[in-house]
Amino acid sequence: MLSTKWQSLSAMFYQQAEALAAKPLLFSKSSEGWAALSWSQTAEKVTKLAAALETLGVTEGDRVVLVSENRPEWLIADFAIMSLGAISVPTYTTNTARDHLHILENSGAKAAIVSTHALARTFLKAAHQSDDLMHTITIEKYVIEQRLNVEIHHWDFLLDAEKADIAAYSARAEKAKRNDIACLIYTSGTGGLPKGVMLHHGAILDNSNGASCVIRSLGIDNNVFLSFLPLSHAYEHTAGQCWPLTIGAQIWYAESLDKLAANMADARPTVMVVVPRLFEMLRTKITRSIEKEGGRKAKMFKRCLELGMKHLRDGEPLSLSEKIEDWVLSATVKRAVKKQFGGRMRALVSGGAPLSPDVGYFFSALGLPLLQGYGQTEAGPVISVNPPADPRLSTVGIPVKGANVKIAEDGEILVKGDLVMKGYWQDEKTTAKTVIDGWLHTGDIGILDEDGYLEITDRKKDLIVNDKGDNVSPQRIEGLLALENEVSQAMVYGDRRPYLVGLIVPDADWMLDWARKHKKPRKLNELRSDPEFKKALAAAVNRINCRLSNLEKIRRFEIAAEPFSIENEQMTPTLKLRRHVVNDVYGNKLAKLYG
Known about the structure:
595 residues; alpha/beta; Rossmann fold; five-stranded parallel β-sheet; five-stranded mixed β-sheet; 40% helix; 21% strand
C-alpha cells in the first residue's frame, strides 16, 4: 500500500491496525523467549497511553520526550503521542544529563517517557532542573524517596487506568494534516550542540513511499524487519519503524549488538537497516574466521570472492566454467553466509555514513543484497538508494520517488520535495541558511552521473583545505585505512597545513596477536610508545599511501590512546566521527607532527 494515500502517520497506523488486526506486528524477547503483539493489541496499548497522556494534560502541539532502547513500548509511545497531535521528541539512550537538559530546555517538553532504571537515573537529573517538564512516565517501575521538580508515573499503572477507545483516536487521526509536525529529531551533533529537526507527517510518509518503490521488485508483502539501530535516529525511525508499518511488515527488536547474530537466526529478517561500521566489523570478523580455519574452506571462500569481484566490481563476464564454479559456490559458500543473516534476506540497506565500495563489493560478492543509500535527518531522512536491479556500489544510488536532487555550482547537493523538514526548532536563522527557496542545502559535495546515480565526494564542511588551497577528502582516506587488518579506526588531519597527518586506532585483535608474537605488553597505553609497534602500523599506512595521490598521503601519524566511541563522545550514537571532539583531545599531539 502506497504511503501517499494517508494524511498522517497516526491515520496510517489506525487504518493498518484495522485492516491487519490479528496479524502479529511487534516481537520482543524476554527470559521466556520471543513474544508477539498483534496489530489490534498494539493499537489498544497506543490508545490507552494516549488517553493517559491526555489525562496528564498533554495536548496538541505539546512536546513529549522519549528515552528508551528499541522495544515495543517505543513504537507504542511514539504513536500515542502523535495520536494527540502532540510532537514526539526521541533522544539517545547514550545521552548524558547535560545532553538531556539541552533537549528539554530547547524543546520545552511537557512530559517524558523513560524505559529503564539506569536511563531514568540519568534523565531525572536533567528533569529536576527543567522548568517546563511536568511529568515523567517510567516503563520500569521507579521509586524515589526525594521529591523532584517533576511527577513520576508508572507505565503499567497509567495504562491499566484507561480504556482503549480505538475508534475515537482513529477519528481524531483522520483530522491531522501532512504538514503537521510529527517529531523533533535532534541531530547527533558531529559539529556541536544538537538541533531539533522538525519532521512533518508528510516527510516521513513520502520517504516511506519512496522506499517502497525501491524494493517493489524484491517484494513488498510478508516482510520482516530486525530493528537494532537507535530509533532516536531519523534513519531507523523512518526506515526501521514507520516504513514497515506502511507495508504491513513485522518488526522484531534485537536485544543488543552482541546478540545480533542470534537474533537474526531467530527473526530471519527480509530487510535490515544498517550502518557501514557494522559491515566493516562483520567483514573483519568473517575474514579472520576463514583465515584461521584455513584449508579447503578458505580456498573456496577466496574463490567465491574472486568470481564475485570479477563480475560485480570489474564488470567482466564469467566464462562457462566460471559460471559452473560460481553455481557450486552459491550452493555452499554463499548459502552459508546468507544463513548467518537468517537465510531469507531481501535487502540490507546501508546508510547514515559513507560505505567503502570495497566493503560493499565484499558482501555483494558473497550473495547478500546490499543497497547503499544516502540521507539526512533534514530530509526525512532518505534521499537516494541503489536500485536492487542495478546497484552501483561506488554511488549512493538514485534519488527516491519524491526527492528532487540537483548539484549547485560549488558541488553541494541540494534537495527539494515533501521530504524536506519544516526547519530547525526555535532556530529560524539556521533554517533560513539551510533551506533556501525550498531547496535543502545538505552540506555534502557530490555529482550526478548521466544515469542519475548520485556519488558523494565529501562533506562540504569536512573537506580539508591545505596551505596551498587544495581540497582533500578525509573520509575516503579514513575508509581505506580502516579496511587494513592493523587498523580499526582513523582520523585524517591537516586543515591549512602543508601535508596530511593521521590518528590511528589499532585493531584490538591484531594488536594482541602482534604483542604475543613479539613478547610485548598487551595494553595499548604501553604499546603506543613502542617503536616496533608503530613501525608495524606504519606498514599499513604505507600500503594505503601507495594508492593515494601526493596530496592525500599520510606523512606522519599518532596512535590514539583509546578507540573512538560513543562513551568518550568521540563518535555519535550512529557511529559517525565527531571531529571537533577528537581535535580537542588530540589536536596538540597532531600539531606537533608538523614540527
